[in-house]
Amino acid sequence: MFKVVDLARVALGSVAQVASKVPVVEQTFHMKERLYGPWPEGPFLWMHGASLGECKMLLNLATFLQQDLPGCPKILLTTQKAEILPFLKETAPNVESAIAPADTPSAMRTFVQSVRPLGLILGENELWPGYLSAMHRRNGLSPVALVSGRYRSSLPGVDMSAIGFACMQTGSDLARFLNVAARGNISKMMIGGDWKLLPWARSNAKIEPPENPTVDTAFISMHMAEWASLSRMLFSSIMRQESVVLVPRHLSELEAFRKALHDQEIMILDWPLVQKGAVSVVSQYGRTTEVFATSRTCVIGGSFCRNLGVHDFWEPLQMGVATCIGPYASGKKECIESLLREGVVTQLKSTASYSKRPLPDVRLVRTFLAHEQAKIMDSYNQLLDYLKELL
Asked: I need a surface site. Which of 43, 72, 349, 383 has the fewest CB within 10 A?
């Protein structure tokens, strides 16, 4: 079965080489960089995340490991999203960042020869078979850690024996992962919560709503595919003379949002300018923290289309911002069910109830997150022990 996986990876490499010669594909996906590099000279502790949310979590983890792990090696963070590399390079000068290698035999050989990874920390669910097999062949032990893990399924025949540590977000994730990991060598496996909360968990900061917020509602990580629902909520806010901020999920959709707002004759401002009865648009990655610091409530994108995934709701919760999601919670269904059950977030079954949505009690948020904090810090300390032994 493993040979079938390897054959598929070889075929993927052939397709990628052809795709790299198509200018529009190369410009969007940077296939040549994924296939041939260059990648920095190691050795490194390698971290890998799919997109911005996972990479921000791993950057925080890297900072804490540099503080808490004796003799911490250089750290390299790779991502699947070429468009966020400028943000990573700007915000994390103590961590190298690069485009992730394509999961093909030749690309992985080039990558490993240059980077010489001492270990690999995967964020959430990036279980690429070539990454796992390359680490197992190079190190011979179980040098891969999966942190803040989410698991639904993986390709048949993926060899999990390279994984030595796994902390999963929920009990359901752990139960599903156990079915495929039982054949591996995972020495430590636990429920560790969502590590997007790791900085807050370490800081012991109190959850307090922003003082004198100037933003009534922030719409965070919204997709253009959600425009039908979003436009109704925006109109509702504008009619009530609320101040609104819009953060697109993809900057590539920024102009489409601007045009849609203009066509609806809605006043548009550029963040950080804010005004009652207007929409302030954020046009850079990494600005959500400053948006939340001045927001009374927020609505999380990715939750108004069935085929999208709900985006990060932990950041506003830990900053005391009353948080609302739409009718869908793809990718985080079990966690959202728990949050709804405890009264920590509000869910809109339809946008008709948007203007009358209840605001969660911040005391319930504090209680829920206290339990999350305990799980996160316990699993982080166990990761430290694992890395001390590995390195």
From this structure: 349
Question: How far is the C-alpha of 75 from the C-alpha of 377, rounded, in Å?
Answer: 21
Task: Give the orientation angle of helix 2-19 with respect to helix 129-139, to 10 degrees.
Answer: 110
Q: What would the two tokens of residue 349 be?
A: 């079954």
Q: For residue 116, is pLDDT > 90?
A: yes
What percent of the chain shows pLDDT beyond 90?
Answer: 71
CA–CA distance, 68 with 116 (Å, rounded to integer) = 23
Give 3-state DSSP helix, strand, coil % of the chain, rounded to 5.
Answer: 45, 20, 35
Structure tokens that stand for 370 in this block:
């206290």
User: How many CB atoms are located within 10 Å of the residue 171 CB?
Assistant: 10
Q: What is the DSSP letter of 303?
A: S
- Of 191, 138, 132, 126, residue with least CA distance to 161: 132
**In one letter, which amino acid is 219?**
F
Q: Could you tell me the pLDDT band of residue 1, with boundaries at 50, 70 and 90?
A: very low
